[in-house]
Each structure stands twice: as structure tokens, then as C-alpha cells.
Design goal:
Mean pLDDT: 88
Number of strands: 0
Low-confidence stretches: none
Structural class: mainly alpha
Largest sheet: none
Oligomer: single chain
Strand content: under 5%
Shape: globular
């Protein structure tokens, strides 16, 4: 009996296995917190390749991207974490101190929205394009605002996959890969417009 590798069921199972493998690699490489940025970029690179059906080699793609983008992704990740810590402190201060004018309290919430938009795009952008850290951050922000509808859909998918993972604990292991794959399907439409 011949096994047809173009079979729809075989394709689904193969992609599912690659998504599970990429999720596990992401968890393993995130163990030291400092590598979360590089690991997330590698996960997005692997899922973008899977989404485009560009051959196999999930592990090789993951670690190639991990090494290639380590410095930039780690730099972006650390800066984002410092910014997030300051932002959370500011929001807490504004919520607890009553003397600050209401119009000034909008500033940290606006910065929080920008941070969220950047977080949704920056690591997947870095996985697809090259540039300096400032170019990557700037272009990611511009894309996230220009394609706000897609950004909101990606945010919705993130929330739904996180809720599903929290509700069914065993699925939590696979949530990063599922989220990154669905995100790659959406962002492929956008990234294709910008590729030279």
C-alpha cells in the first residue's frame, strides 16, 4: 500500500507535528529568560517557513534563526522588558495617586497600546526582514498601525489561544506554536507587500 505524502490528512498531521515540535523548542529555549526574544523570533521564522510550505527541517530552521537573530532579538527583548516595567510602575502610580490630572493619566495607557502593537509585530518582522534594531522597531510599529485591523485580529487570536491553553492545561504546551502559525498565515499577506 502506497502512502501518498500529498494526502490532505498527511499534510495536516505533518504540520501539526512541526507546530508541536516548534512549541517545545520555544519552551526549552526560553528557559533562561534573557533568550525569550531570540526564541520567539526563531519560532516565528519556523512558522513562517511552514506557512509558506518551504521544505522541511523545523529544528534546523529554528536554531538557524535563533543564532542569526540572537543579538538583535535579545536587545529588543531587554529594552521592551525595561519599558514594560517602567510602564507598569507609571500606571500603578497614576491609578493610586489622585493628584495627577486626568489628561496626564492617558499618557501611560497610550504608551501601553504602542507597546502592545509593537509586541504583536516586532519578532515576526525580525524573523522575516533584516535591518538595524531601530529600523526593525520603527517598521514594526508602522506596520502595526497601518494594518490595525490585522493587528486586532492577531490580538484576538492571542487571547483565544491563551484562554484555550489555560482551560485545557495539556494544550498549553502547544499554544505558542499554534498562535505563531496562525499569526504567520495572517502576516504573510502583509509581509508579501513589503518584500522587494
Amino acid at each position: 500500500m502506497k502512502w501518498n505524502q500529498d494526502n490532505f490528512l498527511f499534510t495536516i498531521l505533518s504540520k501539526g507535528l512541526d507546530i508541536c515540535c516548534a512549541s517545545l523548542l520555544w519552551f526549552l529555549c526560553c528557559a533562561p529568560i534573557i533568550t525569550v526574544g531570540a526564541s520567539t523570533t526563531a519560532l516565528h521564522a519556523a512558522m513562517q517557513k511552514l506557512c509558506r510550505d518551504e521544505g522541511s527541517g523545523m529544528t534546523r530552521t529554528f536554531f538557524h534563526s535563533f543564532r542569526r537573530n540572537f543579538r538583535q532579538a535579545t536587545c529588543i527583548w531587554l529594552v521592551m522588558m525595561v519599558f514594560l516595567a517602567v510602564l507598569v510602575g507609571d500606571i500603578y502610580a497614576f491609578l493610586t495617586m489622585k493628584v495627577i490630572p486626568m489628561w496626564l493619566q492617558i499618557v501611560p495607557f497610550f504608551c501601553g497600546i504602542l507597546f502592545l502593537l509593537l509586541w504583536l509585530w516586532v519578532f515576526s518582522y525580525l524573523a522575516r526582514f533584516e535591518g538595524t534594531v531601530l529600523q526593525v522597531v520603527k517598521n514594526s510599529l508602522l506596520m502595526s498601525v497601518r494594518h490595525l485591523g490585522w493587528s486586532l485580529l492577531i490580538l484576538f487570536i492571542f487571547v483565544m489561544t491563551a484562554v484555550t491553553g489555560a482551560a485545557v492545561a495539556i494544550l498549553l504546551i502547544f499554544v505558542p506554536g499554534i498562535y505563531a502559525y496562525l499569526k504567520a498565515v495572517i502576516q504573510r499577506r502583509v509581509f508579501d507587500q513589503y518584500e522587494s
